[in-house]
Amino acid sequence: MFFIFDVETVPDFEFVRKVIDHPEEDEDDLLIQASEELARNTSGFLPPMFHRMVSWVGLWIENNGSPKQKVAWHGTDEKEGLRSLFDALSTYKDFGLIHHNGRGFDLPLLTYRAMKHSMQMPVRLNHYDIKYRYSNDNIDLLDEFSNYGASSWPKLKHLGYLIDIPFKQTGEGHEVLEMYRRDELPEIEHYCYEDVMATYVVWLHLKYTVGDINRELFENLNDRAMGKLKEIQDT
Q1: CA-based nearest residue to 224, from 70, 92, 102, 91
Q2: Structural domains counted in the chain
Q3: Which of 18, 38, 86, 208 has a 20 to 30 A CA-CA distance from 93?
Q4: Contacts with 89 (C-beta within 8 Å, 6 or more apart), sequence order
Q5: What is the pLDDT of residues 90-118, one digit of tens each?
Q6: Residue limits of the Predicted 3'-5' exonuclease PolB-like domain (predicted)?
Q7: DSSP label at 26?
C-alpha cells in the first residue's frame, strides 16, 4: 500500500516570536521579518520548523495504483491533527509514501511538530525504507523528475500544465494563511485534497511513461482520477 498525502500549514507565530530578537507586533510585519531572518530561499517561505499544521489529506492506493480510501483532517488543534494522521498511518504496517516535496517540507514538519507536542510518530516513518533517499517506498516527485537534484525541481502546477491538466484551481499555497484567518478550514482541506489528487495524477503519468504500468491500467486509473479531480475543482 502507498499513502499519497499533502499537509497544509500556517506560520507558528508564537514560536517565531521566541526565536527572533525584537519581533514585530503585527503578524504580517513579523512574517516579513521572519522571512528575512529565517528563510533559506528567495521566496521567503519559512522552513518547516516554523509552521504548524492546520489540515492534511491522504489517499491510500494499492501497489498497482488503484485507489482504496481517502482520509483527512482540518482544525485548530494541531495535536489532534497529528494524532489522526498517525492513527491513519497505523492502518498498514509496511506502507510506502508518495508526495511532492514531502522530503523537503511535510516529513520534517511532522517530526518537528510531533516533538513539540511530545508525541511518538509511527515507527515506519523512521524505517530505512522511508529514510533512504533512493527508496522505492518513499517517492518524492521532486526527486523523480529532477534525477535527485541533478536537474531543476518542477512545481506541481507546472507538471499539470505539461500534461494539459489544470491544477491549483481551488487555491494557492500562499493563500492558506488568509483562508485560515477567515476561518475557512474546510476550504483549506478541499484545497489540500486537490493537491493530493494532482500528485496522484502526475504519479500515474510518470508510472506509465517509465513503463511501470500498461496503457489499459493507466487509462482506467487516470480516467477515474480525472473524474475525481474535476469533481473537487467544481465543488
Answers
A1: 70
A2: 1
A3: 208
A4: 3, 95, 122, 124, 125
A5: 998 899 999 999 999 999 999 999 999 99
A6: 44-230
A7: S
Q: What are the residue ranges of helices labelled H in the chain?
A: 13-19, 27-38, 78-89, 107-116, 128-131, 141-146, 156-162, 176-181, 185-209, 215-234
**40: CATH:** 3.30.420.10
Coil, strand or helix at 9: strand
- Kindly give, in sequence order, each residue whose CB lies less than 8 Å from that of residue 20, ignoring residues fewer than 6 positions away: 30, 33, 34, 37, 38
Rounded CA-CA distance 73/84 in Å is 7
Q: How far apart are the first and last CA of the chain?
A: 28
Nearest to 95 by CA among 119, 62, 134: 62
Report the side by side order of strands in the sheet with 67-74: 67-74, 51-61, 2-11, 96-99, 138-140
Q: What is the DSSP letter of 49?
A: G
DSSP 106: I
pLDDT tens per residue, range 22-36 = 888 889 899 888 888
